[in-house]
Design brief:
single chain, mainly alpha, 13 helices, 0% strand, globular
Length: 310
Amino acid sequence: MTAFALDDPFDRDKGRLPGPAGVLRAAADSIPPSGLVLLGILSVQIGAGFAKDLFHVLPPSAMVFLRIAAAALIIAAFARPRLRGMSMRDWAVGVGFGAILAIMNLTFYEALARLPMGIAVAIEFLGPLGVAVAASRRRLDLVWVLLAGGGVALMAPWGQSASVSWVGIAFALVAGACWAGYILLAAAAGRRFSGTTGLSFAMMVAVILIAPIGVTTGGADLLQPELLLIGLGVGLLSSVIPYSLELQALRRMPKHVFGILMSLEPAVAAVIGLAILGEILNVREWAAIICIVAASLGATRTQKKGETPG
């Protein structure tokens, strides 16, 4: 769930990457940038798959708390934000960034609990797609909007469906709207915070906001060592590793190519859902995912040179 969010603001300080990226830099330099993006996508979706597989042990809100807390601790260790000297606008942007991050992750995991992974990610992807379309404002973009709308219509449980629910779709749509807001706030944070400190600050805010819900729903289970380790793993796979890989890739490839590759994320999510969770999609659901992937590819591919979301 990192597509487009790192497209500009966190690429600003290229000599100061998160710690994990520094450790992996030598190895990453030997991998083509397109490979780094695909590895980042795989990492995000594998993390989501492992998290969903534990929803019978921990509710989605508790798993979100573990994921964000683990990622926040790791990122803060290498990019600690300076609170002194921050203006009221800096605080407003940072807190807003963290709040949207918390809501985005919470609603996405709630959608994930009710939908197959491929469906949840495809619907959520309407957020960055909407930002890309709004940034260009060309007649051709109407085609991508209609194509994406057709994909959502194909997913909707008009009849009886065991794998798709209206509540899950609603959660995924809210997550998508938050993703759009996240892109815009990430850009604002990038202008007010150096390097990845804006992301670090937002993670801390997100932990504070999500903690009451996560602790209440997770209870004593959150203290189990094996679940804490899994939460750490999900935080690494879903946040720290992909952020680092994407930052490294963005240093070596055009941003529109990055966006095109990220458009494959819903299809990758569907494949990971099948491999890890045994989620088998029907032909109509695969057609819906293909429609949204095609719409995202089209909107990204036809952007004017230098035109970026947010």
